[in-house]
Amino acid sequence: MGWKNPFKEVTNSKPLFLTVYGTVLIGILFSAIYVFSAVYTPDSAFSWSLSQHVAPSSPNQTLTSPLRVGGGLMAPISQPHAGKLKPIWEKPPPGSKMPPLETFRLTKELVQERVKDNVIVATFGNYAFMDFILTWVKHLTDLGVENLLVGAMDTKLLEALYWKGVPVFDMGSHMSTIDVGWGSPTFHKMGREKVILIDSMLPFGYELLMCDTDMVWLKNPLPYLARYPEADVLTSTDQVTPTVSDDRLDIWQQVGAAYNIGIFHWRPSDSAKKLAKEWKDLLLADDKIWDQNGFNDLVHRQLGPSVDEESGLVYAYDGSLKLGLLPASIFCSGHTYFVQAMYQQLRLEPYAVHTTFQYAGTEGKRHRLREAMVFYDPPEYYDSPGGFLTFKPSIPKNLLLDGEHNLDTHFTLVNYQMKQIRSALAIASILNRTLVMPPLWCRLDRLWFPHPGVLVGSMTRQPFICPLDHVFEVHTMLKALPEEEFGPGIDIREYSLFDNPLMPAQVKESWLDVQLCQQGSESCQSNSTNAKVLRFPRGSNEETFKTFFSPLKDVKVIQFSSMQDVFVGFTDKTREEKFRNRVKRYVGIWCCVDKHTPGHIYYDMYWDEKPDWKPLPPQTPEDDHPHW
Known about the structure:
Layout: H1 4-11, H2 15-40, H3 108-112, E1 119-125, H4 130-142, E2 148-152, H5 155-164, E3 168-170, H6 185-201, E4 207-211, E5 215-217, H7 222-226, E6 233-237, E7 259-266, H8 270-285, H9 291-299, E8 303-306, E9 314-316, E10 321-325, E11 331-332, H10 334-338, H11 342-345, E12 352-354, H12 361-371, E13 388-391, H13 397-401, H14 407-431, E14 434-436, E15 440-442, E16 464-466, H15 474-477, H16 483-486, E17 492-493, H17 505-509, E18 511-517, E19 533-537, E20 540-541, H18 542-549, E21 557-560, E22 567-569, H19 573-583, E23 589-590, E24 601-602
Parallel strand pairs: 1-2, 1-4, 2-3, 6-10, 11-12, 13-14, 13-21, 14-17, 18-19, 18-21, 20-22
Antiparallel strand pairs: 4-7, 5-12, 6-7, 8-9, 9-10, 15-16, 23-24
Helix pairs in contact: 6-8, 8-9
């Protein structure tokens, strides 16, 4: 019915009906105006970027903890809003000032501004993990998840995130801005801050998906978590053997590995809040307890029976907490993702990858994510000033596939590749180019303890492309070593660099293929100055490389058809000695053989100079050192 007919009827009616109709219509009009203004006013409290002019929270909203929670400056809001969240990456206006630090204190109101469907996704860290945090946020926003918050453990990170338009709160930790290192006292302090944070946020009444910064989201996890509304806690694990072949929760009776607290989802139930408080009290009472061990001890206090026959949940902790174990095939650890590629073999879509099970600290985590093309680097990372050097690795089929997978065949395969990489590092050093590492093939897995080559029951295929940190000390390769002792630095990139969608087209278009030829042959004399292909003699030394390639400094990418016998040595023997001193430190260990202490075996960058070299663990304590 249109508006015209009711008005016509009213004018022909009695005065009483005219009065009633008029009153109703005026009420509707004013209600519409009120609702419109409430939703669209620019001063609405629906912004996460807090204003210093709004009224403070009521005193009973204040919390007390080492996190400096409480006392925010937002006006109380009774219910989570159903409107659209303020877009992430929307930077503050140019010329605006940084709000006072207390503006960013953790309060229910601040969290409420980012909540959607009663869920908040959170991580935390210090400035050393800025690039990890931005990667974490970028993946979530690309997936359409914007109900997130980042806890800043130092003011440098807080300010940097604020100016980038990332929702951030102050954890009041006053932590150093540098990388603290796994297992250090400061690392354990970070773990305690996480527990305090969970204990502080659960009373707000929202579901909390808490994540470490060294993981990335590959698929929106919230619909999956919503499949288990009865769960008080859903946690990832370090399980390396599958218990299910689909996307159900892992079977709790078959999970023998630790529950990993790098990814876990909490609901604000009484049991979950009780667990969080006891966990916090346990850690604050004894600074020697690792946060993850404390969590595992508590939830294993009672484990079983199953909640029902279908969900996969189990009663844990105090007998009333309902716990679910996220499947390791799709909520991946560093082993199930980078080594086993379990999700690929089971034809599943992974939700997340957490950079556990790796051997080169923070640099190793970053490099693994780069190899998987899930790390976000700035544009200059993909356009190295001196250009890139790459090569096509050559591996005979018998080294990959023939014979048993054992120590001898593993080291023969790795050493064959290592020799080529050594030549490529030397050429990259001479030409001042960044070396794009090749994919590295391994026959055996690397762990911290004795094993038969691969973990029994795992889905590790042999051979497999292993992460660079299985063989190379990535953190040492990327470290600034003194040039007077180790010669010029050699920058590296991951093997997948040119497949990354972030690689600029203009870099790949400036490409020169180098075909190796026999010195003195006719084919080595027929180069064209404008060709995309250059013929270059095998067995060349430092001076030959400089002569051929110095005029080609503007070429972005130089790719060699092979590294076999291409480089015979440095002309400058002092430089060669420094180079050797450097690259000897680039290789690590394989671990570990059984029934021998120590069980690790050192890789040797110059293994081919020792005719009697064999892959053996140190035979005496005096032998237990790298080959440098």
